[in-house]
Amino acid sequence: MKLSISRETLLKNMRHMSAVVEKRTSIAILSNVRLVAADNKLETTATDNDIVVQGSTEAFVEQDGTTTVNAHKFFEIISKIPEGVMVNLDLTEGGNRLAISAGKAKFSLACLPADAFPAMTSVEDGVTFKMDATTLSRALTKAQFAASADDTRAYLTGVYMHIVENSGNDEPCLRFVATDGHRLAKVDLPLPEGIDGMPGVILPRKCVNELRKLTDEGNEISLTVGETKIQGEAGDITLTSKVIDGTFPDYDRVIPKGNNSEMAVARRTLLQAVDRVAILSHEKSRSIRFALAPDQLTISANNPDQENATEEVKVEYGADSFDIGFNAKYVSDIGSQIESDDIKFFFKDGTSPVLVKDASDASALFVVMPMRI
Q1: Which CATH number fits domain 127-253: 3.60.140.10, 3.10.150.10, 3.90.1200.10, 3.30.700.30?
Q2: Number of neighbours of residue 245 by Cβ within 10 angstroms
Q3: Fold of domain 256-368
């Protein structure tokens, strides 16, 4: 193998590769990225055995060849080479070393045989359709924050992507849902063309992160969804990932239907007040109290050291007065997903789940469970 390639082109490609490779793994070959040089192209592949990322970039190939090198070391070297410099790769010592030169800098990386690299399999019997990249990234972002971080319940750690035939507006939709049992996020999108028959799948956390990065590669992303895998293609990058083997819970049961007491509040004002008051909340529970009264919200918190904080916020609210408790972080996290200037809360009482909506975006809906106060 012997080739020259633009530093910027290679760096862009390796960002995707290095993100997939685990820094610590007991299987040495999984720490490496596979490099294949042929036909004036450099093809790269990285995997953690659950996700595979493949890329193809133009290069000046003098001699075809295949090898694997440590992905993180290779990426770090390329990232620290000055912009605008050509990078030269040369497989030496009978294939045991990859020589890297750029300007006056020279490096030598140990190689492992490419034949030990895991074989890749494509998505079989999948449904293929295209989506606007920005729209997909936005939907994944709005849903993912509510997913669980507890790996003992794997089915709650991902984003459930599925078709809903009756979304409440009598129009089928593509829905993204995530929940950790304390909060829930739901985003509905119009059905893309060709999506009919797509199975519902739970996208793992890492897959969601890499799909969001993949949407930066172009205006459109092609998705192929099967029962056990999902594949995304954008630009010169292809991502293939296993989906979570499990059944997503019946989330519709926890979305409240009778919350008729509406409170509208300026998003920035509310989040800043919550952030200030939460400074003196209990370190573990992060609990804060909402005291609602007509056109007024009082946010308060206290802790075991008998310290306390209170702040009044002007709101639009005309229903009965009552108190309700929240985890401050959950309120802030949901607020960060609201794009308009105002947030709308829909209450039933002080102990029931609360609906939260974006005042200018009907496609997204959030649920947050109250805390005992």
Answers
A1: 3.10.150.10
A2: 10
A3: DNA Polymerase III; Chain A, domain 2 (3.10.150)
Per-position b or e across 326-362, b if 16+ CB within 10 A of its CB? bbbebbbbbbebbeeebbbbbbbebeebbbbbbbeee
pLDDT by residue (tens digit) across 304-338? 999 999 999 999 999 999 999 999 999 999 999 99
Two tokens, residue 96: 């045991």
pTM for the model: 0.93
Task: Please state, as a whole number, how many other Cβ atoms lie within 10 Å of the Cβ of residue 182.
Answer: 16
DSSP 146-201: TS---TTSGGGSSEEEEEES--SSSS-EEEEEEE-SSEEEEEEEEPPTT-TTPPPE
Angstrom distance (rounded) from CA 45 to CA 26: 19
Q: Is it true that domain 2-116 has CATH number 2.40.50.140?
A: no
